[in-house]
From TrEMBL, chain B:
Domain Oxidoreductase molybdopterin-binding: 87-222
Any Pfam family the entry gives: Oxidored_molyb
Domain of life where this protein originates: Bacteria
Classification lineage: Bacteria, Pseudomonadati, Pseudomonadota, Alphaproteobacteria, Sphingomonadales
Protein name: COG2041: Sulfite oxidase and related enzymes
PROSITE patterns: PROKAR_LIPOPROTEIN (PS51257)
Coiled-coil annotated residue ranges, if any: none
């Protein structure tokens, strides 16, 4: 059942590798251009409406130019970048979901197994992470329970939430799909959720990068480019 | 770690600078700007032609409706009209029409009105809900006898955006004949104030705020947007690079 647990193995599928790097580029563009758009009105509200005379739950200074695309404030260019990247990102997620259903990536690698969900197992996994004890040998060839939970959370909750709240802000989509506004409780609520979800994704990204750096960046990055992964030797 | 962080930061800044440079490349710009066509096509494929923008209850109206853009055209011609309570103001409907019109405010107010409580979404991100009352554009275009080859309606405005260039906007037939597309003369049960576009402004409820042209001075039916301003169909489209289709 387990493939050989020494030497170099094929770790990541082509679909996963393609989607990963496409996302790296698109999410970078979407986040930085999104901050540029946010700078046009750096206030967030809950509900259907919200403008300068209404109570904001968050009011920020403009994000600095080194974080925004373009660096020099241009709402029009930020929108062009954002609205060009957004459909590519959304359809890529859709194709990835379908492809991963077809090649059984979701069922085989991402879905929780009964053993994953045993409280003792989850607690053990949390302790291992806290001690930065990364899996070795055969255990390094599949996702651990915290990894599964974060990947499932991102792919099936966070990314769809970002796409749907983004669509909800479009007045044309409000006419086409009125249920979207109702789902999020108003356009300004959707804008707030879009902002929160974007920063949740940044938090995921930072932890993700940290884990890659700690687990062996060369081996990890190579496995995401070529698919080939050197299995960490079993601890004695 | 310090080295890594610095490298990351430098990398991020360099990548952004790279994107910025890409954004100035003609081919990349064309590709980015063409996303508008995809969004227009996708949205209009997903919506019925007469699909309505959401309408709200009176208790959902914004306490203060934020006025944006020009707050007062302040030109001598506009001030003269305003002092006369817009009795001398006329709305010419010209271009590719069989019967050019020239409508007074009284004539417009005598036509069957439509009242709608809708959400105004600014391109900047804020929204305000207001109750609009006005005349649907459709019967006006029918009265003028819009030609079949008239693809766009151009709205000329009184506000000077600098250098003697007045504001203008345009919509196509898809939105021109929509039931919620009205020429509004009242906001929240009061005649339009100067800040909100007196005496008449356009409401195109499935698009963003910059399409809602204020201070209307004329409507022109045209076959193409070439030759109108710089050819992109609106003041901000021509001067800031905004999308002509503002459904997103």
């Amino acid at each position: 059942m387990t493939p050989k647990a020494t030497g170099t193995v094929r770790r990541h599928r082509l679909s996963t590798r393609l989607w990963h790097w496409l996302n790296a580029a698109l999410l970078y563009i979407l986040f930085t251009s999104g901050l540029g758009i946010f700078n046009a009105h750096p206030r967030l509200y809950w509900g259907q409406y919200g403008a300068n005379f209404d109570a904001a739950w968050l009011e920020l200074d403009r994000f600095p130019g080194w974080l925004t695309l373009p660096a020099l404030y241009s709402l029009a260019m930020s929108r062009h970048w954002h609205l060009a990247a957004a459909p590519l990102f959304a359809f890529a997620l859709l194709f990835y979901m379908l492809w991963s259903l077809a090649n059984r990536h979701i069922v085989c690698d991402l879905a929780f197994r009964r053993a994953d969900l045993a409280p003792r197992h989850i607690w053990q996994d949390i302790k291992d992470h806290a001690r930065l004890r990364f899996p070795t040998g055969a255990a390094a060839l599949h996702y651990n329970v915290l990894q599964k939970a974060s990947y499932i959370g991102v792919i099936f909750l966070l990314l769809p939430l970002l796409i749907l709240t983004g669509l909800t802000m479009a007045p044309g989509m409000n006419a086409a799909w009125p249920w979207l506004v109702d789902l999020f409780g108003g356009r300004q609520s959707a804008r707030s959720l879009h902002f929160i979800a974007a920063f949740a994704l940044v938090a995921f990204f930072l932890v993700h990068i940290l884990m890659v750096l700690l687990a062996g960046p060369v081996n990890e990055v190579r496995s995401m480019i070529t698919g080939r992964y050197r299995v960490p030797e079993e601890r004695p | 770690m310090i080295l890594t962080r610095r490298t990351l930061l430098l990398g991020a800044t360099a990548t952004l600078a790279g994107c910025d440079r890409l954004g100035r490349n003609e081919t990349v710009r064309d590709a980015l700007f063409s996303a508008e066509n995809f969004h227009r096509w996708a949205q209009r494929s997903l919506m019925a032609r007469d699909a309505l923008a959401q309408e709200f209850r009176p208790d959902q109206i914004s306490p203060i409706f934020r006025a944006n853009g020009t707050a007062n055209p302040n030109t001598p011609a506009y001030k003269a009209l305003w002092r006369g309570n817009f009795a001398d103001w006329r709305l010419p409907v010209t271009g590719l029409v069989t019967r050019p019109l020239s409508l007074s405010l009284a004539q417009l107010q005598a036509m069957p009105p439509r009242t709608q409580i809708t959400r105004h979404d600014c391109v900047e991100g804020w929204s305000a809900i207001g109750k609009w009352r006005g005349v649907p554009l459709k019967p006006i275009l029918e009265a003028a006898g819009l030609h079949d080859n008239a693809r766009y309606l151009v709205f000329r405005c009184a506000d000077d955006m600098g250098g003697g260039r007045p504001y203008y906007e345009s919509i196509d037939r898809f939105d021109a004949f929509h039931p919620q597309t009205i020429l509004a003369y009242a906001l929240n049960d009061r005649p339009l104030t100067v800040a909100n576009g007196a005496p008449l402004r356009l409401r195109v409820e499935r698009q963003l705020g910059y399409k809602q042209a204020k201070y209307l001075m004329g409507i022109e039916a045209v076959a193409t947007l070439d030759g109108i301003g710089k050819g992109k169909g609106g003041y901000w489209e021509d001067h800031a690079g905004y999308d002509w289709y503002a459904g997103i």
